[in-house]
Amino acid sequence: MKRTIALTRARDEAERSAALLAERGFTAVIAPVIETRATGAAVPVGPHDAVVATSAKALAGLSEAWRATLSGVPLYVVGSRTARAAADFSLALANAPALDVAGLIEILRSRLAPASRVLYLAGQDRRSELESALAAAGHDVDPVEIYAAVARIDWTQLEAEAVVNAAAVLHYSQRSAALAVALAERAGVADRFRTRLHLALSREAASPLRSFAAPRLFWPSEPREDALFDTLESVIAEYATGDA
Predict the structure, then answer these.
(1) Domains and CATH numbers, the chain
(2) What is this structure's pTM?
């Protein structure tokens, strides 16, 4: 049985996921569909009552000077990776990291004083619910696009072959799943890509693969990476064959 898994997320994230997969006895091949780039955006002049970040990339994209400037402002984040990035840059959290954006919104609603000014360290490609929820609660939100996840134009032929020869492909977002389908089509391996075992982080992330008519598509009951890996382990023995 093959235990080679294709990861299509950004390389830095894929490398972390590959290490976790190795602990479970899997070998990962990495074929990113996006490249993360710092924008060099300037952070607006304060004062701010709080800083929020939903990705470790947002903190990594800050200059050392801006990290020092923000070090005294209460910081709220989503996810353990973002919390670890904050610790790496000596930024103290005002609260335990939220599991997801919805959880962060609830924390901020309970912790922020009325009409707070919130600095949101964001990516260019993002959903609007955090900003909308804070604005609806009467807060002033300063979104700053610290990083951009830029879609790749092509996979190399080696990357495309590695993906379609893997036993399974993991997808972490709706956007990255759609980009993976597009890159497979551009590389001329769409039919082989379709027949892979596909696992998405959530039902929403899986939607481009449903439209693509991928016949072997799964997602965990909760959108967590460990749950995704558990789902992978539970289905790969049944669905990964010698020629998968």
Answers:
(1) 4-33+152-239 (3.40.50.10090), 37-150 (3.40.50.10090)
(2) 0.71
